[in-house]
Amino acid sequence: MPRQPRTAVDEDILDAAAALFARHGFEQTSLKSLADAVGLSKAGLLHHFPSKDALFEAAWAQSRVITQHVLDLVKDIPAGPARERRSLELLTDYALDRPGMVALLFRSMTAPGEDPQQAQDELLLNEMFVIDPTTELPRAIRIVGALSAMAVLTLLANQQGDKTLWRPLILATCYDALGHQEA
Fold this sequence. Notes:
- By secondary structure, the chain is an all-alpha fold.
- It has a single domain (8-177), classed as Tetracycline Repressor, domain 2.
- It has nine helices and no strands.
- It has helices at 8-24, 31-37, 42-48, 52-74, 81-97, 99-110, 118-128, 137-160, 163-177.
- The longest helix has 24 residues, at 137-160.
- The protein is globular, with a radius of gyration of 16 Å.
- Keywords: DNA-binding, Transcription, Transcription regulation.
- InterPro entries: Homeodomain-like_sf, HTH-type_TetR-like_transc_reg, HTH_TetR.
- Residues 7-67 form the HTH tetR-type domain.
- This is HTH tetR-type domain-containing protein.
């Protein structure tokens, strides 16, 4: 069972690893590339996480914690635009703070089957947006579009370094993708 991060260093390692796993997948991500991404030697990385498998599991577990936290915060809001807006706000804030974690979460949409528990992530997202993707395909596509836009735009915002300026524009773009009008 993956352990929870103990320190900010562990969180930084998990976020960097999540970004690499999201971009390249488990098999194509080497222990060396993971260590290089966080400025550690392989031995230093293994001091924090005993194996690549353990790091992968810990990153997925942390991604699920984020998703569950957002769901817990929106579950009492009735289905509809207000709930979706709040979900987008919370996910965007996480993505701006921990872009790798959110990229890994969204990988379940682009690389299904990589993690045995990905179905749980999809169910949490479906519950967050109150949707049955098998019967609401146009809406499901809009949600995937909004979340994809969020993932790309928050990565760009992190590269540009001006998250405060980007945040309202990201939210407006995502909200528009869902087909809602700004209030």
